[in-house]
Specification:
Elements (H helix, E strand, L loop, with lengths): L2 H6 L9 E5 L6 E6 L4 E6 L10 H13 L6 E5 L2 E5 L4 E2 L2 H4 L2 H21 L9 H14 L8 H15 L5 E3 L8 E3 L4 E3 L6 E3 L1 H11 L4 H12 L5 H28 L6 H22 L1
Antiparallel strand pairs: 1-2, 2-3, 3-5, 4-5, 6-8, 7-10, 8-9
Helix pairs in contact: 2-4, 4-8, 5-6, 5-9, 6-9, 7-9, 9-10
Keywords: Kinase, Transferase
Pfam families: Choline_kinase (PF01633)
Organism: Rhizobium etli (strain ATCC 51251 / DSM 11541 / JCM 21823 / NBRC 15573 / CFN 42)
Length: 291
């Protein structure tokens, strides 16, 4: 059955429908669907255990994020299918996020994610512990005979150093995938979407991911941290944050290495691996210099 056939067969539409692919998804296939009444986003994707993606968790997080006022409503779900209300908005770019004006809008949204979603989340919740994810990815790469095997011992040793340096850990409900495209601006407010990796984590992981995914300069990182925590940046917080930012980049690197082997979605994972590995090595060098 084609994706279009699956969408037609959902049985939730009012009259004829129009289906248009939405580009950009690398763990789902996404479509904009219009019927006689409304427009919806249809996300097609099954569990991906190797990436710790469980669709029931994504559904629960999506519902909780909507209840918290951060994300569009869930219209329908069935195995492998999630239908969401369509928001007339544009996805942000890293260049957008790096502007002081946009960063001032984004930080409260991220804080609300951390503080509010857990109050609405129902049922079993996942923990997204980046250092476990890194170790699990490394084990998967060894089992698969990855071409990156020679790099793994050094990368795992660096991860262990980062885990020690990032302590102590505050726990909050995290989005854990703060790419620019997961922020939508409808002209009046911002929305946060795509809860594939949602789960309890430390806030510094999301903040480090926000900065690393969007290539913040040091001044922007300081502004982000001081705004989020509402206090001047201390050396201790800066050290812990720097470690989690490195961990975010290492996880993204290993995610891409694993995806090179296992993903069926068309995407240049090899180039993405090389890009993120280089960014991780540069960030780790800076982390060591600041210790």
């Amino acid at each position: 059955m084609t994706p279009e056939d699956r969408i037609h067969a959902l049985g939730i539409w009012q009259g004829p429908i129009e289906i248009s692919p939405i580009s950009g998804g690398i763990t789902n296939r996404n479509y904009l669907v219009s019927d006689a009444v409304a427009r919806c986003v249809v996300r097609l994707g099954t569990d991906i255990p190797i990436h710790h993606i469980i669709r029931q968790n994504e559904l629960a997080a999506s519902r909780a994020a909507h209840a918290a006022g951060l994300s569009p409503a869930v219209i329908h779900h069935s195995p492998g299918v999630l239908v969401l209300d369509y928001i007339e908005a544009r996805a942000l770019s890293p260049e957008d996020i790096r502007t002081p004006e946009m960063l001032a809008r984004i930080v409260p949204l991220v804080r609300a994610c951390h503080h509010d979603i857990a109050r609405h989340f129902r049922g079993p919740a996942m923990i997204f512990w980046v250092f476990h994810v890194i170790r699990d990815y490394a084990a998967s790469l060894k089992e698969s005979g990855s071409t990156y095997l020679s790099l793994l011992p050094e990368l795992i040793a660096k991860a262990e150093t980062l885990e020690k340096a990032a302590a102590p850990f505050e726990i909050a409900f995290g989005h854990n995938d703060l790419l620019a495209a997961n922020f939508l601006d409808d002209g009046k407010r911002l929305w946060l979407i795509d809860w594939d990796y949602a789960g309890f984590n430390t806030p510094l992981f999301d903040l480090g991911g926000l900065a690393s995914n969007n290539e913040f300069v040091q001044a922007a990182e300081r502004t982000m941290l001081e705004t989020y925590f509402d206090r001047p940046l201390t050396d201790e917080l800066s050290r812990r944050y720097g470690a989690m930012k490195c961990a975010s980049l290492l996880r993204e690197t290993l995610w891409s290495m694993v995806s090179e082997i296992h993903s069926t979605i068309q995407f240049d994972y090899a180039a993405y691996t090389a890009e993120n590995l280089g960014r991780f090595e540069r960030a780790y060098q800076g982390f060591e210099q600041d210790r």
